[in-house]
What we know:
Elements: H1 2-10, H2 15-35, H3 40-43, H4 46-57, H5 62-71, E1 76-78, E2 84-86
Antiparallel strand pairs: 1-2
Amino acid sequence: MALAAGMVSGLGYGSNSLAALITRGIAEMGRLAIYFGGRRETMTGLAGLGDLVLTCTGSLSRNRFVGEELGKGRAVGLDIGGNARGG
């Protein structure tokens, strides 16, 4: 989800697009949790929604960073420490 959120940003789409993505993401996460025997409520708490919003909107999210770079059409690689770097 954070990769997709970064791509939304990197492609220049606005907050409404990001909100739609996150909304669909939480719905799908709930379905996935139920399928594997979990509870939908888990996805609407800090472990689900809280983490999803942070990783999709936070400036320190590595996955979001990679998505932004990909959305901008840049190549993404890893440095020696395994950290993503845009090119």
